[in-house]
What we know:
Layout: H1 13-48, E1 68-70, H2 90-103, E2 107-109, E3 116-118, E4 124-126, E5 130-131, E6 140-143, H3 145-179, H4 186-192, H5 198-215, E7 238-240, H6 243-251, H7 268-275
Antiparallel strand pairs: 1-7, 2-6, 3-4, 5-6
Helix pairs in contact: 2-3, 3-5
Amino acid sequence: MSLDGHNVRPxxxxxxxxxxxxxxxxxxxxxxxxxxxxxxxxxxxxLAAPLGNDPNGFVPASVGAPPRxxxxxxxxxxxxxxPDNVFASEIMTRETVESLIQTHSSAVRxxxxxxxxxxxxxxxxxxxxxxxxxxMGQDQVYFIRxxxxxxxxxxxxxxxxxxxxxxxxxxxxxxKTKTNGNKKGEDDDDHDVWHWPPEHVAYCLNVLADAVQCTxxxxxxxxxxxxxxxxxxxxxxxxxxxxxxxxxWAADEERSVDAARGGAALTGSFGRLWRTVLP
Length: 279
């Protein structure tokens, strides 16, 4: 108030208002930049994930890392080794397949965590989980790509072994059909003459071809023991991610899937579909 009693409007009112507006503007700008930086970092981490790592983070980056030189042992100490005489008999093939099935599982429970998947047009969505059959508790699961690729190798082993012994199987099945009065039993369909559909065998070959192209392994090879002596990969280590680490992570009780409980589901069309991904 002035000396003559009149009110005087504060001169700093406009400055105060401008100052507050500037502070608000800076806060909004800082927040926007923080969000942009975090989004950029997230995208950069997605793009910079080493080959074989999960860009989603669903499988921790430490699993399967770091890469190392590895010798693939060609004997029983390697649980995934397929013996040279695997196709010598139907029994030998079956025993090898069963051994691999008991060793391996492609599925893991998601435990409430989700990954993303990239569409063919590069857009991204949340990856929905698959529910296991009722006999397996209807758990929500994901299938780990590398483990599923190994499942395809088991399928190819079984399919080729079946094709070699198929004539024997068909002969036995024909004999049983005649013995049963031309009635085909359920066991005959599920066991005696079961073979993988050719389309699924071709699919598995393509899955493995995709994996080979994806890794694009550029390691040179040669016949180190002389040309024609042994195989091309003999005596030479490979630069690999830690398969045992990935397998142990998937087999941990926290997330492992008891594939043995799925036996009751492996009947009919639904069961045959699950047979393509179990174990």
